[in-house]
């Protein structure tokens, strides 16, 4: 039960990251800056929490809803601005998407420890983050309820972000398949020239999809900081951002499959920690999720499982239409 519980919980990092990147890639944008965006989202949530703690004068006067709302809003704001920056460089300035994404990752990974070092230097803030995490973000239902039996612990013992990630993944799948907005977005990603000829604003859809997708990915950083790490700044989420990007390919750009895919990736990461190994053997088993990722991507490519949007990674020049 411990392996299953921890796997479901940690899968939230991958699900937020892959769901956000799926929205972005459906528009034709290949954003390799997702690891950096997740770091920026974590940084934004830390800033939001610090602002709220300053307003309350410490943990004593905090409110459960506002303790979640402030980090949440600042997270999607900062991560969304990172997506806006990526869109400006690639859509307006027509720069290479791969280079821009890698630069964004470098920027986000470097900016996170720089900003959080100022917050970490304040022991009151550091203690406040841990308190907010344990009191308000790691559990939705009362402990007496979810500890009743294995069933309640398996389904009701998680924080609000776990349930939010699943809801967002399902909502994205429905929007992509059942709505006009989803149809237009898929058209922009598949054939931007045809979309433009039909009166669909390619630039607008790519801007909005990238900003919304980045905001969703950023929530993975917030979860990692406040739920998984209990507000500890010394751990950085960027490595899992790369696994989230690969998960998009593994799930064939379908967020409903991404729920199961995230759980698989999470299980491969969590399971070695429950084995009775130490030293080099334990380190070897910790490589399993990364080796499995490579194997999965190779198999996906060989058997052509799923098809990427035809316009993925390509800048659109209206004059070439």
CATH architecture: Orthogonal Bundle
Shape: globular
Structural class: mainly alpha
- The count of β-strands is 0
CATH class: Mainly Alpha
What Rg do the Cα atoms give?
A: 20 Å
Helix content: over 70%
The CATH topology is given as ABC transporter involved in vitamin B12 uptake, BtuC
Runs with pLDDT <50, length 5+? none
Distance between the termini: 56 Å
What order do the helices and strands follow? Answer: HHHHHHHHHHHHHHH
Major pleated sheet:
none
- Estimated share of beta-strand residues: under 5%
Count of individual domains:
1
Helix segment count? Answer: 15
Kindly report the average pLDDT value: 89
Description:
The protein has one domain: ABC transporter involved in vitamin B12 uptake, BtuC (Orthogonal Bundle), CATH 1.10.3470. Helix content is 75%, strand content 0%. With 321 residues, it is mainly alpha-helical. The model has no long low-confidence stretch (mean pLDDT 89). The protein starts with a helix and ends in a 19-residue tail after the last helix. Helix 8 crosses helix 9. The longest helix is centred in the first third of the chain and has 29 residues. The chain has 15 helices and no strands. It is globular.
Annotation keywords:
321 residues; mainly alpha; ABC transporter involved in vitamin B12 uptake, BtuC; 75% helix; globular
Short description:
The protein has 15 helices and no strands. It is mainly alpha-helical and 321 residues long. The protein has one domain (2-320): ABC transporter involved in vitamin B12 uptake, BtuC (Orthogonal Bundle), CATH 1.10.3470.
